[in-house]
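Honest question from a wet-lab person: if I give you the sequences of every part of a complex, can you actually get the arrangement of the whole thing, not just the pieces? Trying it with mine:
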Amino acid sequence: MTVESQELRFRTHREGEILDITDKTQTVIESSRMRNGVAVLFVPGSTGAITTIEYEPGLLADLTVALERLAPKDASYEHEKRWHDGNGHSHIRASIIGPDLSVPFRDKKLTLGTWQQIVFLELDVRPRDRTVIVQLVGE
Amino acid sequence: MTVESQELRFRTHREGEILDITDKTQTVIESSRMRNGVAVLFVPGSTGAITTIEYEPGLLADLTVALERLAPKDASYEHEKRWHDGNGHSHIRASIIGPDLSVPFRDKKLTLGTWQQIVFLELDVRPRDRTVIVQLVGE
Amino acid sequence: MTVESQELRFRTHREGEILDITDKTQTVIESSRMRNGVAVLFVPGSTGAITTIEYEPGLLADLTVALERLAPKDASYEHEKRWHDGNGHSHIRASIIGPDLSVPFRDKKLTLGTWQQIVFLELDVRPRDRTVIVQLVGE
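Yes, you can. This is the full assembly:
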């Protein structure tokens, strides 16, 4: 059993951007010494999140609507009253979706469905330089 | 440290079906060579989800109501406008609940609470043949 | 590769209490034999949840509002009709947020962001003695 750690690094461009990071994650596995195990993805930061979705433009728009339902941008936030950075809703959405995702891999391949992609959600209100940790545990 | 991978396979019968997969998951651990570790459950597919709940009929009905609140079935979905498969809400619910669950096990036993079960949520609008990956990492 | 298991134990005082368990989790890693791996946190029980948030009073209040939006306390719950323990909303909130969180660690340090803490959410309606399992897998 071994542990290998790599980082995905990218720049986001706007609030609500949804990035498909499946290929980058698959590449981490391919470049590792491991054949079978689990890829644990984690966002260090409290205004980004990771989940899976069928990555097509319709659903990306629908997810944006659903996030607005979870924590409306124009609601009143105590965070805003104290810090005035305009991203109270970003934090709340991130806490509900969650910063982590664990995906098994077998024979060096993520066990995703055919129409299922791993996505990073930029929930903050401004462009950010983002890092996602990919920790592999396996053999 | 080793990795073992098994699959749970079952057929669902209707949208909103909530299946208790606790016993099946416990059986995977019992049939493995491992004593302590983590069971990582993962749904390959973008219209199913995994979480835990106290598996009693009242809460199963309540969860269905809550999922409708998260992503109402009769809302307008861009996914529907493009693909016409009637399951835009299914995808969105699945992305919010999430496709993965990690449960520690010790002495070959899942560390669940007494009234806590692992459940698969069939969020799609039609019966499906489903697979859940159970990846064990441990020793 | 090894597995180590510890438990965080604490008493909660009221519904909606949000406890910062980052330091306790970091201490588990420091006291272990492991340098790199993943910390899997899990709540045995169906009315508690784990996520991350920037732990400041504004956001803690905002998260409480968002949980009320997810599953309002004064809505009608089938669970309540059967069991009369007043916590139908607690169960539903817990199932949506989820009982598990996986955080990578490197060089004996959690890979959290600077303003990101690990939190336990007491979603039940009364004080509880709580246990959170911290299962480390790594080397």
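Two things worth pointing out. Chain A is about 30% helix and 35% strand. The two ends of chain A are 5 Å apart (CA to CA).
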